[in-house]
Amino acid sequence: QIDSARLWGTIHETAQFGATPKGGVRRLTLSAEDKQVRDWFRKACEEAGLEVQVDALGSMFGLRKGRDMSKPPIGVGSHLDTQPTGGKYDGVLGTLAALEMVRTLNDAGIETELPICICNWTNEEGSRFAPAMMASAAYVGDFTTDDILSRKDAEGVTVAQALDTIGYRGDAPVGRQKFTSFVELHIEQGPILEAESKTIGVVDSGQGVLWYDGKITGFESHAGSTPMPLRRDALATLSEIVLAMESIAKKHGPKAVGTIGEAVIAAPSRNVIPGEIAFTVDCRSADAGIMDALDRDLRAAVAEIATRRKVEVQLDLVWRKAPTHFDPKLVDAVENAAKQLGYSHRRITSGAGHDACNLNTVMPAAMVFVPCKDGISHNELEDATQTDCAAGANVLMHTVLALAGV
Amino acid sequence: QIDSARLWGTIHETAQFGATPKGGVRRLTLSAEDKQVRDWFRKACEEAGLEVQVDALGSMFGLRKGRDMSKPPIGVGSHLDTQPTGGKYDGVLGTLAALEMVRTLNDAGIETELPICICNWTNEEGSRFAPAMMASAAYVGDFTTDDILSRKDAEGVTVAQALDTIGYRGDAPVGRQKFTSFVELHIEQGPILEAESKTIGVVDSGQGVLWYDGKITGFESHAGSTPMPLRRDALATLSEIVLAMESIAKKHGPKAVGTIGEAVIAAPSRNVIPGEIAFTVDCRSADAGIMDALDRDLRAAVAEIATRRKVEVQLDLVWRKAPTHFDPKLVDAVENAAKQLGYSHRRITSGAGHDACNLNTVMPAAMVFVPCKDGISHNELEDATQTDCAAGANVLMHTVLALAGV
Ligand SMILES: NC(=O)NCCC(=O)O
Ligand SMILES: NC(=O)NCCC(=O)O
């Protein structure tokens, strides 16, 4: 059993780095606050006797030796970056539970057959730089390191510049640290476990993701003197797109979601009809066929709206992540650990994307979920209980011990 | 006849102050660029022999003496501030045509019975500080000077601070400079004169204006893991409000317009359902009964949408300007001047608000319109011909001469 109070203590200690007045965390990837938590994590890893490496995209790896160093380690971990108005648990729980596991093994003097490597992946959230799960995507070869280094945030700062600013552009080439398999603990970020009073979610699949960048070009004109029928209003156009996305997603019942999260009017003024708007779209499904339908229906709706309103709408797919089917043997291993420890559990699909989803494309991977209050995440009110966090960390540890061998 | 080339020259000379790459002007009220054009205007007034006064809200008055100094002057002018992406003519034409009139009278050695006072009113546009036509509204007593001085822009800078920064907080109390009557020349900012091939619009009325500040409070949550039916999406809510405003305005045919010009998501992120949005509404009609209907229908629509979507929507009326009916005798004077000069003309309603609309509530006022290309205004592409501008300036001068007496 891990030390529940110690795990809880580290979660609340690191929540200082970027703490918001409403009790959440603002720790955008590669920001000054991210540097603070990274420095803390590096020191904690070193104090736990781990050998720390940082790769060229800033992902951090802490290695605990095993008896058999000829095989790659079992990877365990998550991320320490947050949303602009994020919570204390998303990513943090999985990373600090991996650290807690190492501390527990050290205290108990347990040696494993295979080595264990605990990870903090750069930019899992995707709100400062696109795509989300950026570093693990580069790790599995979906993008080249140079491509990712050149990605820019809204202020035009590149990933390379941001890494250099906080001193976290490491020496290790991306992908050099191999793993035998990968396990990640995370809060569910949805309402199912809580609604069914289950402690552990055995994650067997994950939704695919489509991300688009959009731009509407209508025509700026005077709000008072431009007759309604002559308008080419970019905001009215966006409004129809938002509602179309909503109804397209609803059409597929619980099997799809669709969101416009960002929308910026170019030169806003009370008495000017908006002429130009930039926006982003996020839509998802665990079913590849539905993903195709979402893409097709969204494009058709946008084309119809643009033609009717005589505006130009550009819609560029900037990221497509296929649905995830986690490795059946690893999923069983998670389920066995939950069973042996006596926790109530159920199989579950992840609504959110995770680094484990990327890693699963090149190695066996699996995930453990614990409930979060009201299913709320990506919100400063995100909450989870100490008992559930500890339960998740125990399932994580026992899964890893089963994979690494004692 | 005024000097058409000289008028055209001053329009293009002042268009440098805040010139944009697309050929427009960005000269927000009380900005550094506004200071530049104000300094230019003060110097030009002084060189034309006018006595310049600046009032406590920065409005500028250049007085040309008449034979009878016991009566207040005829006021003539407009404004020199622009929209964030504004054009070269909106406000500028009316202010510089007033200057051109003085230069023409000086050159011809014409003395008038009543004095003439040419004006540059502060913050007519209303895009940096609300309301629009701010200084003339304070002039007629709709707001106190202190109230206006404390209004803030989006960055939290007050009118008082902005005035002090550019050195244009004058000594003259607001309202001290009296006028016998007021005449303003402006581009139409709508499509009617051009469509009917008329050179002069004799403005007999103006739309009333309703301005609201709105705020939507939904709930931020994860774009991937939050099921569609559980969402309280602030942007989807705004989208319904935008389309409701559009259809409410359309219901009244050409007699109403309605626009959402500004909308800002509080902490935007691609994979976060928007939780909070601030927005503004501008709706107008020349019919007081329709204005009441617009207000009632908008509030009802907003309430229904908010209840159905389980979000909070705050909608505060921040400005209400009644429809304008310009002084019949002055309207006739404008029409007579147009007739005598042989220009094609028609009576017209102003879609936009103007300082003359405010001044008309305390003195006889009227306006002269000239066509602008495709009815486009509040856009960098705003355009007008030298011939039409000169025609408008001539009608303006002959109206003023009729009122001031030669
Ligand atoms: N787990 C999580 O919130 N990931 C962020 C990436 C996404 O799914 O949008
Ligand atoms: N004339 C003009 O564009 N005025 C700005 C105020 C308004 O009507 O919105």
UniProtKB/TrEMBL annotation, chains A, B:
Keywords: Hydrolase, Metal-binding, Zinc. Its cofactor is Zn(2+). InterPro entries: Amidase_Cbmase, Bact_exopeptidase_dim_dom, Peptidase_M20, Peptidase_M20_dimer. Zn(2+) 2 binds at D90, E125, H378. Gene3D superfamilies: 3.30.70.360, Zn peptidases (3.40.630.10). Residues 208-306 form the Peptidase M20 dimerisation domain. SUPFAM superfamilies: Bacterial exopeptidase dimerisation domain, Zn-dependent exopeptidases. Transmembrane segments: none annotated. It comes from Bradyrhizobium pachyrhizi. This is Hydantoinase/carbamoylase family amidase. The keyword Membrane does not apply. Belongs to the peptidase M20 family. One of its GO terms (molecular function) is metal ion binding. Binds 2 Zn(2+) ions per subunit. PANTHER family: ALLANTOATE AMIDOHYDROLASE, ALLANTOATE DEIMINASE-RELATED. Zn(2+) 1 binds at H79, D90, H186. Its EC number is 3.5.-.-. It comes from the Bacteria. The keyword Secreted does not apply.
